[in-house]
Amino acid sequence: MTQQYSRQKVAFVASVYRHLSAFHIPYMDWFQQQGFEVHAYASEDFGKELLEQAGVICHDVPFHRSPFQKTNWKALKQLTDGFQHEQFQVLHVHTPVASVLGRIAAKRSRIPVVIYTAHGFHFFKGAPLVNWLTFYPVERLMAKWTDYLITINEEDFKRALAFPVRKEVMFVRGVGVNRTVYKPQSSEDTDQARKRKELGIGANDFVILCVAELIERKNQQQLIKSVASLQQSGPVTCLLVGSGEAEQKLKSMVQSLGLERAVRFLGYRKDVPQLIKIADAVTLLSRQEGLPRALMEGLAAGKPLVATNVRGNRDLVRHGENGFIVELDSIEETVSAFGSLLKDRQLAEQMGEKSLALAHLYDLATISEEMGMIYRKAVDIPHTYSKQEVIG
Q1: Angle at CA 296, nearest 5°, toward 295 and 297?
Q2: d(Cα 95, Cα 97) in Å, to the nearest integer?
Q3: Nearest Cα to 210, choosing from 279, 258, 262, 157?
Q4: Chain centroid to CA 307: how far?
Q5: Which of 10, 169, 243, 250 has the fewest Cβ atoms within 10 Å of its own Cβ atom?
Q6: Any idea what DSSP says for residue 382?
Q7: Cα–Cα distance measured from residue 88 to residue 80, given in angstroms and rounded to the nearest whole number
Q8: How many helices (H) and strands (E) does the chain have?
Q9: At what angle do helices 293-300 and 345-358 cross, to 10 degrees?
Q10: 319 three-state secondary structure
């Protein structure tokens, strides 16, 4: 690097630690390798331990997902005080509320370089009007205080090009997936059979896997209703990995439809790569996405994908090639998609091969190289503030 600092420090900010621990440890490690002291600001959860094990200094901040909660004023003051004390050279913010508060605090604290990764704007084609009225003007304003705005899907990238960022709008295909963890191996047949037996899944069952938080936005209802109709086509097991506020509602739906044996709630799991490998199809029927890692993992594992026709999903699923795109709330289309894969295993295999061929675009090594180039550019060209630009 051409720019040298007496105390090189970088801060990562997100609403919760688990976001940072799940997606950004490789990029924190990049800064550590360059001699930076890495800090993280987020609400406390199980992800904090993983970050601390990676040598990251953690600061608990009481973020609330709703932008109108009073606790966010406390979070803003805490961020501002922390930033002014630490005097960071670089700030990388993530998630909607935390990214806004982080950039305001950065402005007040004169942090030279601010990077923002938009993991999916809340305003998008088909989004409710209230989203456009609330989030769009805020993001445009925040862009003026952002040096590098990173988008992860094509729709967001095209829209962000009109934003008044200080330096540049960039397109990076997500956070990356380590393909070696998911790549199919011929020697794993025995392990997969063992995993199926462990979970009580029949050898001939068609296994559908959905890895997602159990919330309304992830729309597991559409999947559960579709499984009810799929039962007529053959033995089906649907695995739901994740937890969330909609869990009890979804379990009640499963019970009312008599699907207790077909739909399994697995909760939080550390063996997601193994679960993906035993799946016959990977699905995500969300109402809104940025660029879902669950589908990228399906690509890396060489699985056919079934996803709803929303931004982000469309970037990863080529309809009729490596899976199927279905309309939101269309049980008929969803059943037809899964039914085609269940009845024609050769088709499922061909689509899986196409997924595997596309996976290199989202490989962690590729994405890490792109992010490294952005970080090098950011650190080498810090922003200089004038007195008039400082808030507060």
Answers
A1: 90
A2: 6
A3: 279
A4: 15
A5: 243
A6: -
A7: 11
A8: 17, 13
A9: 110
A10: strand
Whether the CB-CB separation of 173 and 140 falls below 8 Å is answered with no
CATH topology of domain 179-361: Rossmann fold (3.40.50)
CATH code reported for the domain at 9-176+364-389: 3.40.50.2000
Beta bridge partners, 16, equal 43
Q: Tens-digit pLDDT profile for the chain (392 aa)?
A: 444 445 699 999 999 999 999 999 999 999 999 999 999 999 999 999 999 999 999 999 999 888 778 899 999 999 999 999 999 999 999 999 999 999 999 999 999 999 999 999 999 988 899 999 999 999 999 999 999 999 999 999 999 999 999 999 999 999 999 999 997 776 566 788 889 989 999 888 999 999 999 999 999 999 999 999 998 888 999 999 999 999 999 999 999 999 999 999 999 998 999 999 999 999 999 999 999 999 999 999 999 999 999 999 999 999 999 999 999 999 999 999 999 999 999 999 999 999 999 999 999 999 999 999 999 999 874 444 544 444 44
- CA neighbor of 14 nearest in space, from 68, 65, 83, 70: 65
Amino acid at 178: N
- Greatest distance between any 2 Cα atoms in the chain: 69
Beta-strand ranges (E) seen in the chain are 9-16, 37-43, 57-60, 90-93, 113-118, 148-151, 168-171, 206-211, 236-241, 263-267, 281-284, 305-308, 323-326
Q: ∠ CA(252), CA(253), CA(257), 5° rounding?
A: 115
**368 Cβ neighbours under 8 A, 6+ residues apart:** 26, 27, 30, 176
Which residues belong to CATH 3.40.50.2000 in the chain? 9-176+364-389, 179-361
Decide if 329 contacts 380 (C-beta within 8 A): no
Among candidate residues 174, 100, 105, 169, the one with its CA nearest the CA of residue 141: 100
Contact 172, 315 (CB under 8 A): no
Q: From CA 325, how far away is CA 306, in angstroms rounded?
A: 6
Torsion-angle region of 261 (φ positive above 0: left; ψ -120 to 50: alpha; else: beta): alpha
Phi and psi angles of residue 292, each rounded to the nearest 5 degrees, phi first? -65, 125
Q: Which of 205, 226, 201 is nearest to 308 (CA)?
A: 226
